[in-house]
Specification:
By secondary structure, this protein is of the alpha+beta class. It contains eight helices and twelve strands.
């Protein structure tokens, strides 16, 4: 008999063969480790047939303070079901659909999942990303001496507010890199991961604490960030830039749709932290 139950840490070895069908290159273990306190002890849901795991939907829970408002998040990840059990796939998603007390986010919905999600109450969060070459442009060249990037958690943590310090600690043991952009007037805390695309290094930004400052000083900061991360360009989801276009930047369609269920926040206020992109090495 096919049934659905919550996934716990001890299920990792049973789920791993399924996850390896998605990719043999990823280290999937972070999906079954608690990197922060979330009030939830489950790692998703399993589909079982007489004790055999035949499907899995990963969930990553977190508690955030966004714009001074406490928000519960649930990021979905790695939805996979053996072909002969596909008719039971929605059984894994059913408990997620019933989560009306939290912001549910899917950052990697395939075309099929995107179409299903729309019918189940999800809406589009983002459809494009932006590539920003790490080159100084415009007034950024003149403001070079007025900006700097502080690298490393030990140097950054004392300069952050209480909530940002919590974010740093929560992501300290992840692949994320932490940087603090500093001008004479303000700072912007940035979290991202270095990725390789077609043999070239890029820095994918998951979080801006002060995107207004970044946009104002992007002509200089983009170069500073490129140097600090040994990257030729920055990559960020389009929604983070709040409608602004940066010189020399190029917009590209996301290979996977960003989806969201729940109306607690505006799209630009939903970052990519506390998700599979932050806890795993994903190219």
């Amino acid at each position: 008999m096919v049934s659905v139950r919550k996934a716990v840490a001890e299920d990792y070895s049973a789920v791993l063969p399924l996850l390896r069908r998605l990719s043999t290159e990823h280290d999937w273990a972070p999906l079954f480790r608690k990197a922060w306190s979330s009030g939830e002890e489950t790692f998703g849901y399993l589909l079982e047939d007489q004790g055999k795991v035949v499907g899995f939907l990963g969930l990553i829970h977190s508690e955030r303070l966004i714009n001074g408002q406490p928000i519960s998040f649930c990021h979905t990840s790695s939805w996979i079901v053996e072909e002969s059990y596909r008719k039971h796939s929605l059984g894994l998603l059913a408990p997620v659909i019933k989560m009306n007390d939290r912001q549910v986010v899917d950052l990697s919905a395939s075309k099929d999942v995107h179409n299903i999600s729309l019918k189940l109450g999800f809406t589009s969060l983002d459809t494009a990303f932006v590539i920003i070459p790490a080159l100084p442009v415009g007034r950024g060249i003149l403001k070079w001496t007025h900006t700097k990037v502080i690298n490393g958690v030990d140097a950054i943590e004392p300069l952050l507010g209480k909530e940002e310090q919590r974010i740093l600690r929560d992501h300290h043991q992840t692949p994320c890199q932490h940087l603090l952009l500093k001008s004479r007037e303000a700072t912007c805390y940035i979290i991202g991961t270095r990725v390789i695309k077609r043999g070239l290094p890029f820095f994918r930004i998951h979080y801006f604490s002060n995107v207004v400052l970044f946009l104002e000083r992007a002509g200089s900061f983009r170069t500073r960030l490129g140097m600090a991360t040994a990257s030729i360009a920055l990559i960020t989801d389009k929604r983070f830039l709040r409608g602004q276009e940066l010189p020399l930047s190029k917009e590209r369609a996301l290979p996977y749709q960003r989806m969201v269920k729940g109306s607690f926040l505006q799209p630009e206020d939903i970052d990519n932290l506390y998700s599979e992109y932050a806890i795993m090495e994903m190219q």
